[in-house]
Amino acid sequence: MLRIGYALLMTAGACAVGFIGYHVIRVLVLAPGIHPFFKAVILVAGVGVILVLIGLVRERRREERDAANDNGSD
User: Quick one: 50 and 72 in the same domain?
Assistant: First the structure.
């Protein structure tokens, strides 16, 4: 039951973040006062931040998994 609740919570969070992200991108793209170059820079920077966060989460999980297998024989 805990896994189902965790999965539902993560799904709801992902949907909320996606919904907010969609509207932020829509407002940015449709803003008439921002030059298209700066719109592209902002969007690329946002994608970069997301990729860095994903990489950090993956690296932390990898370290936790490796720490569980470490028997201290070094």
Answer: yes
DSSP for residue 52: H
- Contact yes or no for 28/43 (Cβ under 8 A): yes
* pTM reported for the whole predicted model: 0.68
The 10 Å Cβ neighbour count of residue 65 is 9
Same domain, yes or no, for 40 and 74?
yes
9-14 long-range contacts, CB within 8 A, separation 24+: none
Domain that holds residue 17: 1-30
Number of domains forming the structure of the chain: 2
Tracing tokens 């990898």 back to the chain, one arrives at 62
Q: What is the pLDDT of residues 3-40, one digit of tens each?
A: 999 999 999 999 999 999 999 999 999 999 999 999 99
